[in-house]
């Protein structure tokens, strides 16, 4: 999906944002359809192409490709390149996941490598600090450069980057330290003192201050200071993503940089409450504050800082918030043309909207092309929760949300589930959903 292919969708984005058009509004084209975590197996590819699918997401794994510093595993690199080539030669457009969320063990042992919270805890998932710390960032830069050289990069539609253990934008969740307390993930040496700080980043504007504390540096902490601290915390994610994109461009990759964006981030009214309470936990509906997710500010920041072309991948198509928003009277789950113009209106109850609807509006405001995927089966670590639709319902409903939100493409999580009897869903079910009017 090269940028030129997104031109009709960008027209739709402008219309959503309220741009004037002297002629009749063209219909927003149907999304391209595809699957996540493709094996590129020939028999599956043949079935998928006959069914009308045209896009796949293929994931690389840093730990497999670079088990030791300084070189790639020849077998893994050759296998990944062959897998991608099979999909490309079958007529699929390929988005490659960088696999930065799977760091090798030697990267975890680098100086200041692990994220640390205000209690000194590290994420139970072993999350590496790809935001502030120079040593793991340099290792990632080397890996990304080698990855571009190892695969048919010129034929890729896009390449995904992220900062979290899920491969998305954000820090770990607020309860991932194992201490039983909420965690802010900016208390490593680099973030606090600047020692070993990654290029392009800044150390904390309030050294030693812990969110929620009324005191700082012998005086009283203020809401203004708390707001600046959170802006630094969330803004560091944007710089980290821009840094990865710059490495890819420097390595010669000219395709789309895809940024997986989870949830809806902190809502504007909630951010005001949170800052006013010195970030003590008030105003945080879903952990977005601790994860540094502020889509209202971040998406325009991404549009300005990340060297293009850049595409936002919304990972919340038919998540649990869509289930809740759908049950309201009137329902608040579907995207509407007026959303970008009203999403920041304090009189509009955007807390009732689904994650997809709110974040889609922010992407439109930022002028960013958008693709999306569903969270996957309930109970999975990939995003589905106990409150999500069943996988069968996601297969049925997610394509309709992709259409209503004007997504350029939708990839279903996951390919394997369409080809194994135990899942209870089939490729025919997916085809039925994408061909329904």
Automatic annotation (TrEMBL):
Residue ranges of the TM segments: none
Domain Glycoside hydrolase family 42 N-terminal: 45-127
Range of residues in the leader sequence: 1-19
Enzyme Commission code(s) on record: 3.2.1.23
The entry's keywords: Glycosidase, Hydrolase, Signal
GO molecular function, a single term: beta-galactosidase activity
Domain of life where this protein originates: Bacteria
Name this polypeptide is given: Beta-galactosidase
Residue span of region Disordered: 367-398
PROSITE patterns hit by this protein: PROKAR_LIPOPROTEIN
Annotated Low complexity bias: 367-384
């Amino acid at each position: 999906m090269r940028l030129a292919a997104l031109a009709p969708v960008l027209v739709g984005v402008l219309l959503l944002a309220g741009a004037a058009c002297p002629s009749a509004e063209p219909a927003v084209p149907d999304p391209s359809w595809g699957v996540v975590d493709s094996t590129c197996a020939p028999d599956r590819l043949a079935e998928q192409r006959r069914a009308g699918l045209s896009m796949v997401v293929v994931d690389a794994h840093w730990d497999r490709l670079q088990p030791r510093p300084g070189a790639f595993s020849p077998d893994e690199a050759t296998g990944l390149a062959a897998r991608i080539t099979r999909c490309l030669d079958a007529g699929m457009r390929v988005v490659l996941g960088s696999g930065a969320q799977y760091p090798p063990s030697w990267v975890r042992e680098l100086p200041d490598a692990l994220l640390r919270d205000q209690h000194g805890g590290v994420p139970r998932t072993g999350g590496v600090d790809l935001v502030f710390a120079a040593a793991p960032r340099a290792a990632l830069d080397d890996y990304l450069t080698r990855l571009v050289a190892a695969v048919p990069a010129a034929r890729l539609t896009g390449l995904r980057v992220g900062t979290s253990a899920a491969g998305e934008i954000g820090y770990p969740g607020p309860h991932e330290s194992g201490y039983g307390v909420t965690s802010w993930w900016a208390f490593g040496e680099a973030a606090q003192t600047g020692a070993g700080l990654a290029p392009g980043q800044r150390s904390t504007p309030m050294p030693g201050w812990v969110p929620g504390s009324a005191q700082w540096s012998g005086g009283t902490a203020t809401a203004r200071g708390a707001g600046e601290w959170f802006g630094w915390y969330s803004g560091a994610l944007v710089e980290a993503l821009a840094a990865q994109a710059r490495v890819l461009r420097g390595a010669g990759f000219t395709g789309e940089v895809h940024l997986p964006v989870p949830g809806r981030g902190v809502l504007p009214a909630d951010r005001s409450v949170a800052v006013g309470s010195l970030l003590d936990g008030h105003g945080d509906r879903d952990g977005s504050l601790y994860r540094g997710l502020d889509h209202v500010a971040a998406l325009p920041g991404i549009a300005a800082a990340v060297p293009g072309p850049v595409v936002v991948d919304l990972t919340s198509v038919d998540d649990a918030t869509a289930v809740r928003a759908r049950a309201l009277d009137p329902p608040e789950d579907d995207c509407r043309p007026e959303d970008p113009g009203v999403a920041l209106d304090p009189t509009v109850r955007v807390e009732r909207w689904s994650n997809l609807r709110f974040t889609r509006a922010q992407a439109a405001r930022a002028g960013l092309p958008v693709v999306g995927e569903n969270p996957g089966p309930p109970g999975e670590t990939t995003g589905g929760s106990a409150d999500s639709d069943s996988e069968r319902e996601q297969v049925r409903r997610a394509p309709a949300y992709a259409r209503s939100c004007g997504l350029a493409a939708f990839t279903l999580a996951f390919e394997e589930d369409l080809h194994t009897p135990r899942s209870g869903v089939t490729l025919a079910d997916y085809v039925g959903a994408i061909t329904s009017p």
